[in-house]
Amino acid sequence: MFINRRHLVQTAGLSVIAAVWPKPALSQQYPAKPIRLIVPASPGATVDVNARYIADQLTSRWKASVVVDNRAGAGGGIGSDTVAKSSPDGYTLLFAGITHFTTRLLPDSALTYDPVKDFTAVVKVSSAPLALVVPADSPYKTLGDLVQAMKAKPGEIAFGTGGNGSSSHLATVLMNDLTKTKARHIAYKGNTQAITDVIGAQVAFTWQGSGGVLPLIKAGRLRALAVSSSARWESLPDVPTGREAGVPGLEIASWMGVIGPKGLPQPVVQLLSDELVKIAGTPEYKEFCEKQGMTVDIEDHKRFQADMPHEQVKWKRIMALAAE
């Protein structure tokens, strides 16, 4: 076969140029299509409200759609499981909270993912304590009233949660442990139904994040008895903390942040971390969090990734109380 020498030289030259010519970095190409941000909760839940704010901000900055996809169920574990099985390309992410750990730790859990090893922690943006709410016409006017009722009727008073291992479940577990009381657990497939049944007095109370209950408290459909933070909420200044209500140690909060599947490319991780740290550091996000009863709590990729094993140990201890 005859090969023209000039053609051979030209081809070789082009090959050398292609090899040394700088290619666009992956982070410069990303995102090239819509990003799916999975939320392991029902629409309107605190984690959902936060995720939608973050998604809107990223969409505005990148001019690429970040679409919230609600995947409630299994106490939030379905969302984590979906992301664990997704392609590590940066286009399927999880806006996670503590249920990422807790539902996996349930004794009867059918979930198989490892909360640390099967994921890449991208950034933490906030923490959200909970509010203890009862129907507006409930006979329980204070946390003390509820505690006395649970002591008088051990295991009879029902409470609703977003599922086994959810933050609403664990807040009640902690409260019962601290007050030496028992209550009857009604686990729903999401927080929305739990809140609905409290309004209708089908269950006596629930612990919920601010996003799902603040509008209902303001509208007079629910009454808040306490909050699970160390200080009162700006949005509920008349509602006492657990300590103020007579139960020291009643503090629990769900962190919120973005997590991807294992193997997420480092340039994508760094780009996401940098952008989300900027968003979470704005005065607008601080104001948004304060109105929702949340606090800005930023950890970049390196800090968040390093903190994940410690989070697993912490929530494992609280989950042990739920199994007692």
Descriptive account of the structure:
The longest helix is centred in the C-terminal third of the chain and has 22 residues, at 301-322. The strands form 2 sheets. Strands 1, 2, 3, 4, 7, 8, 9 and 10 form an 8-stranded mixed beta sheet that branches. Strands 5-6 form a two-stranded parallel ribbon. 45% of the residues are buried. Helices cover 42% and strands 20% of the residues. It starts with a helix and ends with a helix. With 324 residues, it is α/β, with parallel strands linked by helices. The model is unreliable at 1-24 (pLDDT under 50). It folds into 2 domains: 33-128 and 253-322, 3-Layer(aba) Sandwich (D-Maltodextrin-Binding Protein, domain 2); 129-227, Periplasmic binding protein-like II (D-Maltodextrin-Binding Protein, domain 2), CATH 3.40.190. It has 12 helices and 10 strands. Helix 7 crosses helix 12 (301-322).
**Radius of gyration, rounded?**
24 Å
Mean pLDDT, to the nearest integer, reads 88
Protein structure class: alpha/beta
Share of β-strand residues:
15-25%
How far apart the termini lie comes to 81 Å
Give the total of beta strands. 10
Our count of helices gives 12
Percent of residues in helices:
40-55%
CATH topology title of the largest domain: D-Maltodextrin-Binding Protein, domain 2
CATH class membership of the largest domain = Alpha Beta
Low-confidence stretches: 1-24
Classified in CATH, the superfamily of the largest domain is: Bordetella uptake gene, domain 1
Q: List SSEs in N-to-C order.
A: HHEHEHEHEHEHEHEHEEHHEH
